[in-house]
Each structure stands twice: as structure tokens, then as C-alpha cells.
């Protein structure tokens, strides 16, 4: 039985992996903006894989604010809670409150059910860069990267890559520095996020969601980090709407 269990796991996992080595969209990071983008792109019939360095997908949404598991969303994003079946309560004319663990779980479940392949414990340490375009991701196990082991990574091919790594903007930073390119940002590179301003941060998260180099999109906090906009704190409507916008842009590009 022990060998049968091992064969069952490895046979199915490697089969699914090989079926997804060449995909339409690779999303780095699995926070709320990336999950919504992945869900929408998969619903449109495209292949999507997500790469998460931690064991648990979900990004900063899990922890709510200071581990208080209530998160706020503004009215513009409530339709997504309704669609995903996430219960919420009205707090005032502008905000609703929902449970962070329930909301994050729902996003992960819906994306997975739509066919999104989520790789946990994997870090995107570089991109595939061909013909002056981001054409895939270079991936290794997170413990290998963290321990500094000299183990070569593997590459996955993708028509589009999304940097949804949050505050560090890890992929955008890597692409700009290693390839000496100019990004589609005011500074031509990664500006770094500014201190908190909820109103500006929420609006600019959506505004900054776009393609910043051929084949490379940004969404969520990575978008604000790249463009030098403020962080917004424990309100998540802009994050979800950013994922919606990213998906629409990418689907149109793939067509």
C-alpha cells in the first residue's frame, strides 16, 4: 500500500505538471488580485498556473489586519463577494466587512475549480527573456532558494506573465535589473511603494494594473510598488478589482 500511494501521487502530479509546462498565463504570487485574475482567465478558456513560495496560497488576505480576521471592501467590489458566495455585513454606506479566512478560502477554491494549477512551495526566481519579451518563468523550490543551495531551476513557458508578488514587486524588479530594460512606468524602472494612503492607494491599484513590458503585467500591490503609489492597508476592494482588470487586459491580448 505504501508504494501504491507514492505511485498514485507522483503519477498524477507529474502528468498534470507536464500538461502545464507551456501555458497561456503564469501568475507569480497568489494573493487576492492574482487569484481573481487567474479565475477570470481560466473561465475564459485559457491555461493558467500560479506560483506561490509559501505553503498556503492567499497572500496578505489571510491575516486580515493585525490578525483581526475582518477585512473591509468598498461598494464597488461587493458584486464579487455576491458572485463568489462570500457572506458579508454592511458596516456603513461605503464599506462592507467579511471574514478574511472565508474570503481567501473561497477565492482559492473557485480558482482551483476553474482549472487554475497552483504550485505552492515554488519560487519564481527569474523569467525567460527572449526576443525582447518576457516569455515564461524560471522556478525552483522555495527551500532551495532560501538555503542558497546550488541547484538549477526549471523553466515554464507562458505567453503572459503576471507579477502579483505584492509589496516587493519581485518579478518586475528582477526583469528590469537583469536585462537593462526600460519599463512602462514614470521612472522607467520599479519606483517602490509610498507610505499608506487608503483613498489614493485603492484607486491607483486599479489604475496601475497594466502591461509594463511586452509579456509582463502587474496587478495588486505589485502594481503600486512598480509605479510608486501608496499602500492601502487592510481594505481589499482595489485588490480584487485590480485582478479583474488584469484578466480583461490579458484576455484581450491573448485574443
Automatic annotation (TrEMBL):
It is an enzyme of class 2 (transferase). One of its GO terms (molecular function) is pentosyltransferase activity. Its cofactor is Fe(2+). Pathway: Cofactor biosynthesis; thiamine diphosphate biosynthesis. Homooctamer; tetramer of dimers. NCBIfam families: sulfide-dependent adenosine diphosphate thiazole synthase (TIGR00292). This is Thiamine thiazole synthase. The gene is thi4.
Amino acid at each position: 500500500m505504501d508504494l501504491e500511494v507514492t505511485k498514485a501521487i507522483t503519477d498524477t502530479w507529474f502528468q498534470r505538471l507536464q500538461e502545464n509546462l507551456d501555458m497561456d498565463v503564469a501568475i507569480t504570487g497568489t494573493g487576492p488580485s492574482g487569484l481573481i485574475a487567474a479565475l477570470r482567465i481560466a473561465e475564459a478558456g485559457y491555461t493558467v498556473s500560479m506560483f506561490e513560495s509559501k505553503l498556503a496560497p492567499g497572500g496578505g488576505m489571510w491575516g486580515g489586519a493585525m490578525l483581526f480576521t475582518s477585512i473591509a471592501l468598498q461598494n464597488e467590489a461587493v458584486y464579487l463577494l455576491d458572485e463568489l458566495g462570500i457572506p458579508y455585513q454592511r458596516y456603513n454606506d461605503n464599506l462592507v466587512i467579511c471574514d478574511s479566512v472565508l474570503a481567501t478560502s473561497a477565492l482559492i477554491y473557485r480558482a482551483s475549480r476553474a482549472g487554475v494549477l497552483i504550485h505552492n512551495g515554488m519560487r519564481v526566481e527569474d523569467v525567460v527573456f527572449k526576443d525582447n519579451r518576457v516569455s515564461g518563468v524560471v522556478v525552483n523550490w522555495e527551500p532551495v532558494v532560501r538555503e542558497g543551495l546550488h541547484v538549477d531551476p526549471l523553466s515554464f513557458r507562458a505567453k503572459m506573465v503576471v507579477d502579483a508578488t505584492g509589496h516587493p514587486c519581485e518579478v518586475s524588479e528582477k526583469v528590469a535589473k537583469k536585462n537593462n530594460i526600460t519599463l512602462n512606468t514614470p521612472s522607467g524602472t520599479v519606483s517602490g511603494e509610498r507610505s499608506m494612503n487608503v483613498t489614493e492607494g485603492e484607486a491607483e491599484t486599479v489604475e496601475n494594473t497594466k502591461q509594463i513590458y511586452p509579456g509582463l503585467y502587474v496587478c495588486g500591490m505589485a502594481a503600486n510598488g512598480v509605479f510608486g503609489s501608496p499602500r492601502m492597508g487592510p481594505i481589499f476592494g482595489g485588490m480584487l478589482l485590480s485582478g479583474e482588470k488584469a484578466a480583461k487586459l490579458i484576455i484581450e491580448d491573448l485574443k
